[in-house]
Amino acid sequence: MSELSVKHLLGIKYINKDDINLIFETADHFKEVINRSIKKVPSLRDITIANLFFENSTRTRLSFELAEKRLSADVVNFSASSSSVKKGETLIDTVNNILSMKVDMVVMRHSNPGASIFLSKHINASIINAGDGAHEHPTQALLDSYSIREQFGEVAGKNILIVGDILHSRVALSNIFALKKLGANVKVCGPKTLIPKHITSLGVTVELNLKKALEWCDVANMLRVQNERMDISYFPTTREYTQQFGLNKKILDSLDKEIIIMHPGPINRGVEITSDVADSKQAIILNQVENGVAIRMAVLYLLASKLQKNEN
């Protein structure tokens, strides 16, 4: 398979296993590129990409920008906090104004679940969802699965644990979709109040005891508590959360095997993970960051190829 089955990357839910493997193979190539002394390739020289971030983001936005520049694309950056959105302009108006500048692709983060799907139905550009509310964050899930593949050679059959605020996390949902499509076993762990009621219908199991869950897994992906998405209190105190679900070196060293530790960032050090764990040799957090650029290059390149093919 040499091209994606989709025109947009709206969520892992909408792509298949072949798409994921094609993205990984393309990312392998781009990973070589970004480790060369000259890190740029002319692949997207005639493509204009608009980065629309209606929600704060540092790592994802920088990662996409870097990926776009490495591919020699023309980049337009848009931040909602300093735009006419503040004056009441609608999403469609904003995007139409940007598209009238002849933009080919849009990378969008928005606080409303389904915003990128809504957009894809109204405009011709290729849309990449960089996170929509608590719904999906597909490129994060791809780089996480890619990082696991890099450690073990394959994702199939591996035991992957996702710990933390599963209820509000788009990273958790996208990861579950990606890992299940690639044949991994997935377990979630966290306070009962932060685990969605119907999560088992996605083919995952629930374990409320962190130590038991860690004994089972090959990889633990530690998520932060999404305080900004909470309108009520889901657990008594942060201290209590950390005592029950925080990962420290003592717990890590007490396991009868070495497991891989991941974190999508930003890290709340001392809450879901201590500094000595985040900075340990078992943590591949910085590998995830590097792989994020290669994965996003791969997604941009493959969607642009499809775009150019349809235009010809």
Secondary-structure map with pairings?
Blueprint: H1 17-34, E1 48-53, H2 59-70, E2 74-79, H3 91-99, E3 105-110, H4 115-120, E4 126-132, H5 138-152, E5 159-163, H6 170-181, E6 185-189, E7 205-206, H7 210-216, E8 219-222, H8 238-245, H9 249-254, E9 260-262, H10 275-278, H11 285-311
Parallel strand pairs: 1-2, 1-3, 3-4, 5-6, 5-8, 6-7, 8-9
Helix pairs in contact: 1-11, 2-11, 5-6, 5-11
Protein model, in words:
The two termini are 20 Å apart. The longest helix has 27 residues, at 285-311. The chain has helices at 17-34, 59-70, 91-99, 115-120, 138-152, 170-181, 210-216, 238-245, 249-254, 275-278, 285-311; strands spanning 48-53, 74-79, 105-110, 126-132, 159-163, 185-189, 205-206, 219-222, 260-262. Strands 7-6-5-8-9 form a 5-stranded parallel beta sheet, sandwiched between helices. A 4-stranded parallel beta sheet has the order 2-1-3-4. The protein has 2 domains: 12-136 and 291-311, Rossmann fold (3-Layer(aba) Sandwich); 138-288, Rossmann fold, CATH 3.40.50. The protein has 312 residues and is α/β, with parallel strands linked by helices. Strand 3 (105-110), helix 4 and strand 4 form a beta-alpha-beta unit. Helix 1 crosses helix 11 (285-311), helix 2 (59-70) packs across helix 11 (285-311) and helix 5 crosses helix 11 (285-311). The chain is globular. The chain is built from 11 helices and 9 strands.
